Amino acid sequence: MLRPLIVSFREGVAYRAKGNLLWLLHRISGLGIVVFLGFHIFGMSMAAFNPALHERALELYKTPPFAIGELLLAFLLIFHAVNGTRIAILELRPQLWEKQELATRLSLIITALLTAPTLAIMAYKSISHFLAH
Amino acid sequence: MTTTTLSQGRTVRKIQPLQGQARFERAMWLFMRYSGLALVFLALSHFWVQHLLIGTHAITTAQTVVFWGAQGQPITLGNVLFRSYYAVMLVLAVVHGINGVRQVAYDYFGHRPAIYKGLMTLVVAIATVISLGGLLALVLGAQASSEVAIR
């Protein structure tokens, strides 16, 4: 049952075209976000149904493992958003297809430009919180 | 495809409208692009407000109550705006997410209908329960627990 997944992953990585790696990362980031989204919506709904559980979920997000997971989430979310914008614009405007190499490069550059300060600020906030407590 | 010849001699091609599954796939293809573009603004603004401006370590139950409005209390315009913003984002993100999972599942398990259908039934069932719960929570508002002071 896992074989198609393993083969697809291996082939996806082995085929070294840039766009293909972005395709793989778009897929992995999307799946990661959707799993988080399920837990996140559940945790937030508890504000209406079970405030104690909501409180515990918020406390859990403030622990070191989740602080690291949060940095990963930030990268996945920003990458998925920027790369998704590239896909949407190119597919809705086929006359731009001849510029797809530029688009690929731009989506990586914009991802890096948005991710770097986000991760820096989040890491700074987390570290100063853990040092103070 | 049918063709009709107009009186001026121009030929107009009439494309048959898509039907059934193909029509659904086309609608979902468009939905993924447009909801994605909307979610770029909705999800990133949400993420940056909560994690950069406020910061995870400063997020409290009291803040949720202030943003959403408390159950049994009169709601403000701000509460209505917050709840609508989250309701729109929730619906777009959940449908976008389910369809993404569906495409991935079809890629790997499309040739095994039993696994594919079983997996998707499970995903849709879980997503329906969670997202209806989330929408109901947004309609009801936050419950102010005893230790949370309302100002």
Secondary structure layout plus pairing:
The complex is a heterodimer of chains A (133) and B (151).
Chain A: H1 3-14, H2 18-49, H3 51-60, H4 64-92, H5 100-132
Helix pairs in contact in A: 2-3, 2-4, 4-5
Chain B: E1 2-5, E2 11-14, H1 21-54, H2 61-68, H3 77-109, H4 113-140
Antiparallel strand pairs in B: 1-2
Helix pairs in contact in B: 1-3, 3-4
Oligomer: heterodimer
Total number of strands of chain A = 0
Query: Pairing-aware structural class of the strands and helices of chain A?
Result: mainly alpha
Spatial shape of chain B:
elongated
At the first level of CATH, the class of chain A is: Mainly Alpha
Biggest sheet of chain B, strands in spatial order? 1-2
Number of strands of chain B: 2
- Percent of residues in β-strands of chain A: under 5%
Return the domain count of chain B: 1
Order of helices and strands of chain B: EEHHHH
Largest sheet of chain B: 2 strands, antiparallel
Helix content of chain B: 55-70%
Low-confidence stretches of chain B: none
Q: Average pLDDT of chain A, to the nearest integer?
A: 89
CATH architecture of chain A, please? Up-down Bundle
Structural class of chain B: mainly alpha
Quote the beta fraction of chain B.
5-15%
Q: Please give the radius of gyration of chain B in angstroms.
A: 23 Å
Could you walk me through the main structural features you see in this protein, from its secondary elements to its overall organization?
- The complex is a heterodimer of chains A (133) and B (151).
- Chain A has 133 residues and is mostly helical.
- Chain A has a single domain (3-132), classed as 3 helical TM bundles of succinate and fumarate reductases, CATH 1.20.1300.
- Chain A contains five helices and no strands.
- In chain A, α2 (18-49) packs across α4.
- The termini of chain A are far apart.
- Chain B is mostly helical and 151 residues long.
- Chain B has one domain.
- Helix content of chain B is 68%, strand content 5%.
- Chain B contains four helices and two strands, in the order ββαααα.
- In chain B, a hairpin with a 5-residue loop joins β1 and β2 (11-14).
- In chain B, α1 (21-54) crosses α3 (77-109) and α3 (77-109) packs antiparallel against α4.
- Chain B starts with a strand and ends in an 11-residue tail after the last helix.
- The model of chain B has no long low-confidence stretch (mean pLDDT 88).
- Classes of the chains: A mainly alpha (133), B mainly alpha (151).
- Chains A and B meet through α1, α2, α3, α4 and α5 of A and α1, α2, α3 and α4 of B.
